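Narrative of activities, Objective 1.

The group set out to show that a structural description can be obtained from nothing but a protein's sequence at a throughput compatible with the screening campaign. Below is one input-output pair from the validation batch, recorded exactly as produced.
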Amino acid sequence: MVTIEGIRRAWETLKPVVRYTPLDYSTTFSELAGNPLYLKLENLQKTGSFKVRGAYNKIASLSPEEKARGVVAASAGNHAQGVAFSSTKAGIPSMIVMPEGAPLSKVQATKKYGAQVILHGQSFDEALEKAFELQKETGATFLHPFDDSHVIEGQGTLGLEVLEQLPDVDAIICPVGGGGLIAGIAACVKAIAPHIKVYGVEAAACASMTASLNKKRPMSVASTGTIADGIAVKKPGSITYELVEKYVDDVFLAEDIEISRTMLYLLERSKLLVEGSGASALVPLLYRRMPLKDKKIAVILSGGNVDVTFMSRIIEHGLIESGRYVRIITTVQDKPGNLNRLLALLAEERANIISIHHHRISPRIVPGQAEVEVELETNDRMHIERITERLIREGYPVDERM
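Output recorded for this entry:
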């Protein structure tokens, strides 16, 4: 049973272990959302996410005999690192089963925190099945990522921190996957200050909590894949569902394109590296879908474990979408000076050339012509339109490709 007393005990247990993360007022995002926004920077937490809170609190609750047998878990991301760090900190062994396709950086991080990593299966479900087998073979305690009262109470300590940092907060927004984080925060906040609103945000591509609330019971949904993989949980827990149904005021959805833009906003405007699941909490506020105006709002940025190569794709996509990058293909007469004239025209339009490719052989041109593919750094969509119109006016056919 999850109680406010249990959450307070968890907070005392966690104080020597976890970081008391900042609650940072953001002028930029406050203006965009029409509300004073405070960002709870759990992306700066040890292991890069809030998961360490619940994992350590669960491990601390084990008996000496249970600790001697160690713990086992299945995860492809933040839970793995939280369990590995917490187990090592507590001086007990841990086995983490991760899918064979788990990102190398997360596998290495989990090993570095001290866990024995076992790669098994092509999906999380296959890894989970293997973890259950190991639990039966070894007698180790299975550490659930969300549907456990000690885990939930550990996550609920975030609620205590927010209330201490911003006593007059009007609403708290956090991401929803299996429901451990929002269940803990909501149980905490509603016990102390029931007037404070608690809202959740799910990835629209895997909205299992919304489906469950609609059907009045935990439901499994099919996931179409989402960049917010940390909250892509196909079925919420039974404990977490009951707490969400009882305490959470509403749950909103975030589309992947909105999450991607928000990740880029956070990086560019606030210099914060936040993973898709954490950034999702901001989405309904930035897109003005929440019934809040001029309210003090705390937004939980739950984690910052983003693969660098994936983040580079987020940045590239954001540049294209905002009109700050374009690739243009055109043709010129294959004679001396014609390429130089094209480049001079682009320079006059203040476009910065990133790269240029000159082809004399292409199915799109005839003998005597050359195809020129140029990548440009631009200011915005209007700048791209001006460049395109100028090229066409000067006799250059344009194939604009993003």
